[in-house]
Amino acid sequence: MTQPFGVVFDSCFRTKAWEEEEYKAYLCNTVTQFQETYPESSIMIFNFHEGDTKKNIHHILLEYYITIVDYPKHYEGCPLLTMEVIHHFIKSSESWLSLGQQTVLLIHCELGGWPVLAFMLAALLLSRKVCTSENRALEMVHKRAPKKDILPMMSTLNPLASQLRYLQYVLKRNADEKWPPADKELRLDCVIIRMIPDFDGKGGCRPVFRIFARDPLLHLEKSPKLLFSTPRRSPNARSYDQAESKLVKIDINCDVQGDVVLECIHWDDDMMKETIMYRVMFNTAYIKSNTLMLNHDEIDVCWDAKDRVPKDFKAEISFSEKYAITSMVPVDLSRFKGEGIPMEAFGKVQQMLSSVDWLVCKGFATLNGQHQTALSDIVNQVLENSFHRTGSSNLH
Fold first, then answer.
1. Whole-model pTM over 0.70
2. What Cα–Cα distance (Å) separates residue 237 from each residue in 26, 282, 329, 351?
3. Which of 23, 284, 288, 379 is most exposed, with the fewest beta carbons within 10 Å of its own?
4. Handedness of CA 333, 334, 337, 339 (dihedral sign)
């Protein structure tokens, strides 16, 4: 091995659950094979996992003394992560790989995690300037999949529109802008729809909305919540017909901040059955002129429902401005000195951390072994385990 590189477990393409012993044998064989091939390598594993569950990879690899950092595998059902987490992933990846020629970043995801893993790898390719186009970056990653139809097997909605939007955010980092920008609180006033989708089979729909985001009033709470849902008795919960309504304005009036998921739902006539028409994920920091304009190709829809949305469809999300805050809390690294850590190891990891904005992120867990730790504790783990090993399925 002549240069640092990243690899992924090829289990990310799997669509069926593992038997416990089969999964254990797969992980151990992969790690052992990698260590034998690169005996001098230093390993860190990034694992995309579900919720707060402590999955088998931590227990199985405990004896290998490898630092494992967990990331979520979705954000409110979207195979995307928040700007804060994307920033952490990119900076820590780059800094780890820059430590020396023997460092390896091993990336693993739980069952169904390929869509978000592919997005994060594309973000890393853009940040390292391997690609300069968001479309090209995603294309390069998805070409590694053994089947072209693997994405629809793991995601009910086609997530590419929102993923490309977030990769455009990543490209702004390469333009030397302050990144990620401070969170900006806005009021989402209304949604204006031009050209009504056909979801009732009669040339129309009954559009209602749900909005998920962090609560702007709870600044220390990073977990997303349902901030708005159209009441069933609302006068906005009415049917619209393509022939009669070329333009529809639906009031919402909901304060939002940071990463936002907006879902447009169709209710049937008795308002009991619902069908998602489209979904959009965006970050308020990148809203220009208090408007987000979306066309037919800029919304996430079900794979078999694209034809229900007219080609000249447009949705205009209108905001009013409030104020900006920052949600980044730096970690004091000086307290790690004098704790019996070899100075050579401390020096190397301190060099890595000096270029990384290590954040105290409440929105995701950082784990090592069987115990959940604060994000700052990963510094100790990196210091203690800065030269251990692992691997599989190369992606440069």
1. yes
2. 51, 24, 41, 56
3. 288
4. negative
C-alpha torsion angle, residues 118, 122, 123, 127 (rounded to 10): 150
Task: Please state, in angstroms and rounded to a whole number, the distance separating the CA atoms of residues 15 and 389.
Answer: 27
pLDDT digits (tens, 9 = 90+) for 144-180: 888 888 999 999 999 999 999 999 999 998 777 788 8
Phi–psi pair at 376, nearest 5 degrees: -65, -25
Distance (Å) of CA 7 to CA 91, 124, 166, 172: 17, 12, 23, 26
Q: How far apart are CA 84 and CA 176, in angstroms?
A: 17
Q: Please give the Cα distance from 117 to 9 (Å, whole number).
A: 11
Identify the structural domains of the chain with CATH numbers, from first to last: 5-176+329-384 (3.90.190.10), 183-325 (2.60.40.1110)
CA distances from 328 to 92, 183, 290, 355, 390 (A): 15, 10, 24, 15, 32
DSSP 288: B
Which positions are annotated as active-site residues? 109
Hey, what are 274's tokens? 């619902």
Reduced to 3 states, what is the DSSP secondary structure of residue 262?
Answer: strand
Q: 3-state class of 292 per DSSP?
A: strand
What is the H or E stretch that residue 343 is in? helix 343-353
Query: What is d(CA 48, CA 219) in angstroms, rounded to the nearest whole number?
Result: 25
| Total residue count of the chain as it appears in this document | 396
Q: Quick one: which of 63, 176, 79, 67 has its CA closest to 119?
A: 79
What are the phi and psi torsion angles at 358 (to 5°)? Answer: -70, 120
Both structure tokens of 20: 């416990």
Buried b (16+ CB within 10 A) or exposed e, 83-110: bbbbbbbbbbbbbbbebeebbbbbbbbb
SS3 of residue 320 by DSSP: strand
CA atoms within 13 A on the CB side of 6: 26
